[in-house]
Design goal:
Homotetramer. 26% of the residues lie in helices and 22% in strands. With 444 residues, the protein is of the alpha/beta class. The chain has a domain at 56-364: Alpha-Beta Barrel (TIM Barrel), CATH 3.20.20. The strands form 3 sheets. Strands 1, 2, 3, 4, 5, 15, 16 and 17 form an 8-stranded mixed beta sheet that branches. Strand 2 and strand 3 form a beta hairpin. Helix 4 (163-175) packs across helix 6 (209-226). The two termini are 32 Å apart.
């Protein structure tokens, strides 16, 4: 007896893509079998040539609630996630108000999420100067790890840490074997004021690769000193690929992600005054980004995460086109899969790699790798059904996150998400949401 059987010719398993049937009971994968099941007690679905993949896991999302729900929110953000095949995300500790740097703030964050989640959601705690006494309290509340900035975060309540701050925090984090996620930009020299603040090339030169490279070098040293798990978020400088590779050869517990926008866009093609493209670190040149692709394929970069960070139009300086003043953040949560797949298929990268980069590898960072990220017996029945050969043009009307401004508007993308399943329950089906607010808060 079982609840659900999904059959198809392209099921992404840990051993590759295979034909067969995934059998589900009580929200858990009971088995993956060859052939089609005919048990009349189950809901039986045949997806044919479409791909069945584990539900996508995005551990780098800014939902901004409580306090800045004018920017995003649990309801809109997780709705966009469900429509994009994402079944689990982890919310960043800044942009909400209060920021998640105390146990009390964590309580407020979790309370705000209750009853609003379309998908599962966990939380990172924050490391800022002076909150050392809150680290173990946050761990006690169930945070999945911690995030720190080495340069100004853009939010005054979430200031950057110094090396001295990290030397106090990292032994505590290491004791609990949790990851420390780091925004790696270290201002080595202040850039000269730019004459044209609408120029993308001027913005790009204002945040040089050297800032990232210096910050990553620091984190390698500290990782070695404290044996603390370090995760480099949104890598954009290809100069740091080799140092990361060498650190891993030494056995240091360092992981790294990049973001879809660094793999899809190139600086040479970005028009001036188009603030939708602004992010930090910036989208760099084509040759740099091709090196990121190679590092991803060689498993030096572990996975890809959106860093979804929308903001209201006035903060994005849509009217002025001022790239120096505009909020740095790209809205892309719903498009995580088609963006990566569209860029990958141009490079003849197979669909099975989407499962590795969007599901299996990101599950490990927040410690969910024993229950999520694979289609295998005993794992949660979180799935996305998608058509790799179907294409669509991105329009604002399709997007479910709060602010529709994104550099992907009008882009033609391959990979249409048809269904999303959470714990064996259909939560997104060809544009509709048949089951609402099924997501759970994930705590350690």
């Amino acid at each position: 007896m079982f609840d659900l059987a999904i059959s198809g010719k392209n099921i992404c398993t840990p051993d590759g893509i295979t034909a067969g049937t995934v059998v589900v009971n009580n929200g858990i994968i009971a088995d993956v079998v060859t052939g089609v099941s005919t048990d009349a007690s189950a809901t039986a679905i045949d997806i044919g040539e479409m791909v069945l993949m584990p539900g996508i896991i995005d551990p780098h999302v800014h939902l901004n609630e409580p306090g800045r729900t004018a920017w995003e929110g649990f309801a809109t953000g997780t709705r966009a996630a469900a429509a994009g095949g994402i079944t689990t995300l982890v919310d960043m500790p800044l942009n909400s108000s209060p920021v998640t740097t105390t146990a009390e703030a964590f309580f407020q964050k979790a309370a705000a999420a209750e009853g609003q989640l379309q998908v599962n959601c966990g939380f990172w705690g924050g490391i800022v100067p002076g909150n050392g006494s809150e680290i173990e309290k946050l761990i006690g509340k169930g945070v999945l790890g911690f995030k720190a900035f080495l340069t100004h975060s853009g939010i005054d309540e979430f200031p950057n840490v110094t090396e001295a701050d990290l030397r106090k925090a990292m032994p505590i984090i290491a004791k609990y074997d949790l990851p420390l996620l780091v925004h790696c930009e270290l201002i080595t020299n202040m850039p000269s004021p730019v004459s044209d603040e609408r120029s993308y090339q001027n913005y790009l030169s204002s945040r040089p690769k050297a800032w990232e490279d210096e910050a990553i070098a620091l984190m390698v040293r500290l990782c070695e000193a404290f044996n603390c798990r370090v995760h480099i978020v949104h890598l954009s400088s290809a100069n740091s690929i080799e140092p990361i590779k060498q650190a891993r050869k030494k056995g240091l517990p360092i992981t790294v992600e990049t973001a879809q926008h660094y793999l899809y866009f190139n600086a040479e093609e970005i028009p001036d005054a188009q603030t939708a493209f602004k992010c930090a670190p910036p989208i760099r040149e084509k040759e740099n980004n091709e090196q990121l692709w190679r590092a991803l394929q060689e498993n030096i970069i572990d996975f890809v995460a959106t860093d979804h960070s929308p903001a209201p139009p006035d903060i994005k300086e849509i009217g002025s086109g001022n790239l120096m003043k505009a909020w740095g953040g790209i809205a892309s949560l719903q498009l995580a899969l088609p963006i990566l797949w569209t860029a990958a298929r141009k490079r003849n990268i197979p669909a099975i790699d989407m499962a590795k980069w969007l599901c299996e590898k990101p599950a490990a960072l927040p410690g969910l790798h024993k229950s999520k990220g694979k289609i295998a017996k005993g794992f949660d029945a979180d799935f996305v059904v998608w058509d790799p050969n179907k294409k669509f043009t991105v329009t604002a009307e399709q997007l479910h996150h709060k602010h529709k401004m994104t550099p992907y508007l009008n882009q033609e993308l391959y990979g249409v998400v048809e269904q999303t399943w959470l714990g064996g329950q259909l939560i997104f089906d060809q544009g509709t949401f048949p089951a609402l607010n099924q997501g759970k808060i994930i705590i350690r």
